[in-house]
Amino acid sequence: MREILIDITNYKLYEDTVSTLEACRRLGYKNYLITNNYPEISDNLKKLGIASYFTDFIISSHIGYEKPHEAFFAYAKRIAGNPELAYVIGDNPIADIQGGKAAGFTTIAVHLCCESAADHHCKSLAQIMDIIK
């Protein structure tokens, strides 16, 4: 299974990934990848050409907690400098949305196939810009 997870050919970016990450940075946001994933995910992001858009990577396998555990989100918030305004943007209604809300983040569900308790819902990454401007 590990070989499948680290194989870069198994990953494809959404067409609006780079433009949305760039737009967030232009607005002064810092982008953090927070993920329940394997340690090498940051290497794959480099291979995909998007690692430089992220300020840091908070990876469950590095810290010992997974989303939706509140300690995971508390750690991520500390790494980000405890900002007053912070968004969790994700596609998992439990790990991302419920976990983020429980930890006090504003949540944005994107590419979600089912109902969620997110504060906002977007069909594409680009639609996030209408919320965070």
Secondary-structure map with pairings?
Blueprint: H1 2-6, H2 17-26, E1 32-35, H3 41-47, E2 56-59, H4 60-63, H5 70-79, E3 87-90, H6 93-102, E4 106-110, E5 120-122, H7 128-132
Parallel strand pairs: 1-2, 3-4, 4-5
What does this structure look like?
This protein has helices at residues 2-6, 17-26, 41-47, 60-63, 70-79, 93-102, 128-132, and strands at residues 32-35, 56-59, 87-90, 106-110, 120-122. With 133 residues, it is of the alpha/beta class. The chain has a single domain (2-132), classed as 3-Layer(aba) Sandwich (Rossmann fold), CATH 3.40.50.1000. The strands form two sheets. A three-stranded parallel β-sheet has the order 3-4-5, with helices on one face. A two-stranded parallel ribbon has the order 1-2. The protein is globular, with a radius of gyration of 14 Å. The N and C termini lie far apart (40 Å). The model has no long low-confidence stretch (mean pLDDT 94).
CATH architecture: 3-Layer(aba) Sandwich
Low-confidence stretches: none
Going across the major beta sheet, what is the strand order?
A: 3-4-5
How much beta, percentage-wise? 15-25%
Q: What class would the helix/strand composition place it in?
A: alpha/beta
Average of the residue pLDDT scores:
94
Number of strands: 5
Q: Assign a percent range to the helix content.
A: 25-40%
CATH class: Alpha Beta
Here the CATH topology equals Rossmann fold
